[in-house]
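Students often ask what a holo structure prediction actually looks like on paper. The answer is less mysterious than it sounds. You provide the chain, you provide the ligand, and the output is a string of discrete structure tokens encoding the 3D arrangement of the protein together with flavin mononucleotide.
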Amino acid sequence: MTDLTTSWLGLTLRSPLVIAASPISHDLVAAKQAVAAGAGAIVMYSLFEEQVVAEQMAAHHFLDSRIDNDAEARSFLPDSDVFALGTEPYLRQLEQLCQHLDVPVIASLNGNTPGGWTDYAKQLEARGAAAIELNLYDVVTSATRTAAEIESDQLGIVESVVNQVSVPVTVKLSPFYSALPAFAKQLKNAGARGVTLFNRFYQPDIDLEQLDVDLKLAYSTSAELPLRLHALAILHPSSALELACSGGVHSGLDAAKAILAGASVVQIASALLEHGPEQLATIHNELHQWLDDKQYRSVSEACGVMSLASAPAPQQWERLNYMKILQGWQPRKRK
Ligand SMILES: Cc1cc2nc3c(=O)[nH]c(=O)nc-3n(C[C@H](O)[C@H](O)[C@H](O)COP(=O)(O)O)c2cc1C
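The corresponding structure tokens follow.
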């Protein structure tokens, strides 16, 4: 039988299947069910910079009552309809999860500007987080901030969080980097231990009837996995970071592919939200069965077997293959 124990960020996990940052961690019952179904760890939903800043602003507000009459100052506070203000509910939920789950709980911090908010990483550690996943999700709308400036700010955030805590820090990225291997190297130099590939960009649609932006968060499908497989396979040989796959894992076979491409762990959100937390057991059993059938003794033995360095035809991950596929394409014959 394959030993599913794996190591991620220096933590020993009983399974490479990890509950991704999502509302599952809002709900202790659902989190317990997913853990009972075999999850090796859980990542909490993100604590947002805006929530932290709101708390800091509220402290100023208390110290300086002039703000009461200052509409401009008040306007800096985020809308409380959108953000649960303050950090305490998050910290309490973190403690609850740590107390009731027998797997590591990883806290998630999301922000996009360097600043004092990163001090909050210390509180996450103090309240029990086994690691911190820094979610660098940002929607860049400015035409004057360059990619280099944005990446430099992101590295600054990573460095400042790493400097606050002794627990490991992993960084969750979007897929949109021009030179991912070089950025991964810089993340490593900034002190990150791992990287999670990728966040799913929230993609608003247009409602043609209402002429409005349609705000919905659709679940992923397995069709989103190959983007991750490609990045994992490329990063695995060159990066000293531990790789986590996030996005498009809906079955044990999807999880197996992510591990073969180079992921130490596989994070899952949509499949559990769609089918319930017990779905993790189905994914777990299928992954275990596949690894067994292929006679892998451990997850680490399978990890990276299909990476750019180890695949039987590594050039298939590269640019030349893109050209071959395009040029070899044949239109389907019409009946
Ligand atoms: C409802 C919902 C809420 C999410 N909340 C967070 C979050 O707070 N922080 C975060 O880093 N990712 C969040 N995610 C993204 C997931 O962690 C995950 O990266 C993404 O959904 C891709 O994985 P999947 O294909 O298994 O869904 C959320 C996803 C969903 C569907």
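The two ends are 49 Å apart (CA to CA).
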